Amino acid sequence: MMKVDSPQTVVTGGSGLLGTALRRLLPSARFPSSSELDVTRADSIGAWLDASPPTLVIHAAAFTSPPKIDQDPSRAIAANIIGTANIAQWCLDHDATLVYISTDYVFKGDKGLYREDDAMMPVNGYAWSKLGGECAVRLLPDHLVIRTSFGPDEFPYPKAFVDQWTSRQSVSQTAAQMVRVIERGARGTVHIGGPRRSVMEYARSLDPAKMIEPLSLKDVTFVAPVDTSLDTTRFRELMQDEGGRWDPTR
Predict the structure, then answer these.
(1) Which of 18, 137, 177, 195 is least buried, going by the fewest C-beta atoms within 10 A?
(2) What is the pLDDT of residues 34-84, one digit of tens each?
(3) pTM (2 d.p.)
(4) Which residues are catalytic?
(5) CATH 3.30.300.30 fits 9-154+169-193+231-239, yes or no
């Protein structure tokens, strides 16, 4: 088992939704702020990481709003592509393991239950920028790409898509499963997620008593894939205990 909760672990994006959840699980890890470690600047990365080089970097920092990226793609290029390449270069130069948090949106969304080796074809700028990050990470001999989809522990919106399918989970559950996968020493690509369901079904699973109105993909101005649900067979195999049983809460 790999020790993840350690000062030798650095997590980027510590102020984000996922980063906040990981802080609770990894109190001994280091979480530099964006002002301390600016991923868009290689000199900033070197100045911070070289002072006490980590052996494991979990790269969760990203610009994640599809509508805002459509309006200003340069921010996604800087943060998600160049920033990830900068982190990857540092890890390559210092023989550090790199874990990259990617997205289910790298898939076209026309079939669902995507496996790790299925063809990727993003349908919006956000997903292209995350795929660009994957390209850099895959050049490292010691890497793990985690594709997933998560949201707040309480559904934050008054409406939810009834015609979009996903494997989305709460961020707390996803973060815990990420840590377990990293501890197991997984390499390559792993899909983490829950069962295939509509976004509305996912939302109601979080807040059964909340009144959530239906929403259609036809009602929004940005482009989003229809079905990016993930096949999580490899994840389940990694989580099996010695008796061959799988505990989805682990």
Answers:
(1) 195
(2) 999 999 999 999 999 999 999 999 999 999 998 899 999 999 999 999 999
(3) 0.94
(4) 126
(5) no
